[in-house]
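Structure in, sequence out. Go:
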């Protein structure tokens, strides 16, 4: 890859490394008092990763996580499983069988009762299979992200 010569080239190179991730999580907090607690949860997410202008990968992700909470701060570690992938090449979509797993580490700061900012880093290794190839293809994806979250707080539990 050559070095960027204009601001437009630099923005284009950075945009190739940006992917869209959507997720929903369900969790429960076991409080210890004084704003401390343990949070456990499950999640489902889907991601679109652009390889270049005409090729993108689509993943379905399932996660199980464990976190430690202190007042507005939450540190959590997630195990990620991925079981399906499709590759879009131009206007054609090809489906592949495959599986993958990875880990994600997150720091969450709750700005308000309903809003939070999250800094995330993680990695997933993915292996997919094509019947017409004699070998498997392996993808390794690393990522760092900043997210804004919305939380629905449901009443209940033991007080």
């Amino acid at each position: 890859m050559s070095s960027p010569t204009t601001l437009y080239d630099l923005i284009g190179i950075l945009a190739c490394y940006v992917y869209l991730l959507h997720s929903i999580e369900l969790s429960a907090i076991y409080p210890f008092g004084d704003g401390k607690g343990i949070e456990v949860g499950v999640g489902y997410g889907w991601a679109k990763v652009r390889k270049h202008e005409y090729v993108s990968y689509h993943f379905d992700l399932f996660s199980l996580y464990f976190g430690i909470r202190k007042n507005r701060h939450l540190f959590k570690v997630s195990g990620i499983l991925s079981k399906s992938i499709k590759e879009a090449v131009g206007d054609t979509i090809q489906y592949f069988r495959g599986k993958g797993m990875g880990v994600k580490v997150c720091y969450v700061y709750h700005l308000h009762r309903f809003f939070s900012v999250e800094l995330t880093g993680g990695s997933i290794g993915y292996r997919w299979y094509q019947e017409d190839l004699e070998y498997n293809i392996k993808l390794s994806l690393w990522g760092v992200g900043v997210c804004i979250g919305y939380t629905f707080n449901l009443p209940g539990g033991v007080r």
